[in-house]
Amino acid sequence: MLAVSVTQFYSADQRVRSATEDMKTSFEIKGNYSSFLPLRNQHTEISEDYQHSHVIISESDRIAQKKTIGVSKPRKNQVSGTVLEMDKVTVKCEVCSNNQNRIINLPTALFKDHVTIGMPFTVFLDETSGYRRLLVKDRAINEEIRQKGNDEMAALVNEL
Amino acid sequence: MLKIHFLNVGHGDSIIIEYQRDKDQNSIFGVIDSNVPVDSTTPPTLDKLKKLGAENLSFIALTHPHKDHYTGLSAILKEYQGRVDRFYSFPINAYVPGRLKKLAQIYQKIHDETDSSTLKKGAFEFVEILHLIKKHIGENRWEEPNGCDNKIAPEGFLGLDMYVSLPLSKNKGPYFEMIESGNPHIMFHHDLNKISMAFCIKYHGHEIVLAGDGTHSCWMGHKDHFKRMGSPFGGIVTKLPHHGSKHDCSQRVINHIFSKQEDTKKVGIISADGLSHPHPEIFKNLTENNIHPFCTNLSKKCGANLMQFNTEPDLTPQFNHQLNLVTDPAYKEKHQPCQGDICVSFEDNGSINVESQYNNLCPYREAFPF
């Protein structure tokens, strides 16, 4: 057996697609195409004797590939938060990233003139103008969280 | 014997004053401010009070209404319900009818209109503190001392002199205006540092200054007052104002709040996590004045800014890069604190001892004892 990488021979996408077509044909001959996962960097084992007619992917490799695909989450180009405090230069915000609340400082200029304490916002990466820049837009408030504890707060205030 | 415990609570203040007048008497305790670090569930002040065996509290003081000074205070008030003799606070004029309610209603508005957990929690706790104090300590034992040299007399502290050095009386007005006008910025506004209390304790010839978050202008006003009076002022041990801010710990402020004896080595306590404070430049001011810094947590120069926000795995590299360009790159959450909890003891014979939890060596000072 000879271990080779598909990308070793076909670096460009088109070439990989072309190679995939070759392999597809070969699999169709063997009737085993359903288990094939075309990945650019996958390492496949090709029999030295049957290089052009057999592509064998070991079971462990296939499981590993499936796992890799399963855990890769789509990454985000935005993060949502709430304004905590601000001055002329900096807006201190609470943002939720990776399911954790964090406090970061953003420049006041990002928010233009409409920044207020408690303002819910989303900061996102805008590429529509041909270059990358951060923009801030209003975020819809989460009503369920907003209403939490309001009755207890009212009771405390009434007793003062 | 007098012991002052400066607790490591990240960026914030938590101070316990422990006083034992005679060896055969029980210790008396007072608490100034409280903060709970992000990774803690219970207030470190409460844990420490229990360890020290505090049955009652002579006083609790809240220097000013910023979250890094009042978080965890409600838990302490609940635990010591009916066992706190006095409450000292920044000026609210709590005895004016309807004043407390107006203040609480601003926090209620913020609480009810936001879905931010930080804002909700902070607003709720502040109102809860006002409620607990009014209910369990009472308005008669709620004092709002201010001025440059206002002597206070908490129960059991006979034998030492305790003064309130700040806020300046003239700074009360703008805060009252914010309350009356329902200004929502009242919760976080940095100008609130102008109403921060500061304490001065005199014991066996030593002066200790606990400077709260007093600002440069406040301390300059204080300096003018003492200059006119012709009285000396300055601590041999001082907790630096506003967590070692560059502006509020300027050379002029440092000169004023520390003892003027040039041959005496002084101790400067800094209670910040190194992200926004303390400013690296203040260490130069300190070393030039023979002041030896003890940081409860970290300073930026000592590695506090090693971890950055842009390590988030669920954001694209492009977005992380842009975010990192505009955010404070000093965000960090896991670190080794430098000194940890610090205890400064003043013996009856006049000797001073500084004990710290970790006792790491510091490039800005000699190892203690000097």
Mean pLDDT of chain B: 90
Helix fraction bin of chain B: 25-40%
- Helices and strands of chain B, in order, run as EEEHEHHEHHEEEHEEHEHEHEHEE
Strand and helix order of chain A: EHHEHEEEEEHH
- Oligomerization category of the chains in this entry: heterodimer
**Order of strands, widest sheet of chain B:** 6-5-4-3-2-1-14-15
Biggest sheet descriptor of chain B: 8 strands, mixed
Count the beta strands of chain A: 7
Order of strands across the biggest sheet of chain A? 5-4-3-6-7
Strand residues, percent of chain A: 25-35%
- Portion in beta strands of chain B: 15-25%
Biggest sheet record of chain A: 5 strands, antiparallel
Produce a short descriptive summary.
The complex is a heterodimer of chains A (160) and B (370). Chain A is of the alpha+beta class and 160 residues long.
Please describe what this structure looks like.
The complex is a heterodimer of chains A (160) and B (370). Chain A is α+β, with helices and mostly antiparallel strands and 160 residues long. Chain A has helices at 6-9, 13-30, 59-71, 143-146, 150-159, and strands at 2-5, 43-46, 78-86, 90-97, 100-107, 120-126, 133-138. Chain A has a five-stranded antiparallel β-sheet with strand order 5-4-3-6-7, with no helix packed on it. A two-stranded antiparallel ribbon of chain A has the order 1-2. In chain B, the strands form two sheets. Chain B has an eight-stranded mixed β-sheet. A seven-stranded mixed β-sheet of chain B has the order 7-8-9-10-11-12-13, covered by helices on one side. In chain B, helix 3 runs parallel beside helix 5 (117-137) and helix 4 (99-113) runs antiparallel to helix 5. The longest helix of chain B has 21 residues, at 117-137. Chains A and B meet through strand 3, strand 4, strand 5, strand 6 and helix 4 of A and helix 4, helix 5 and helix 10 of B.
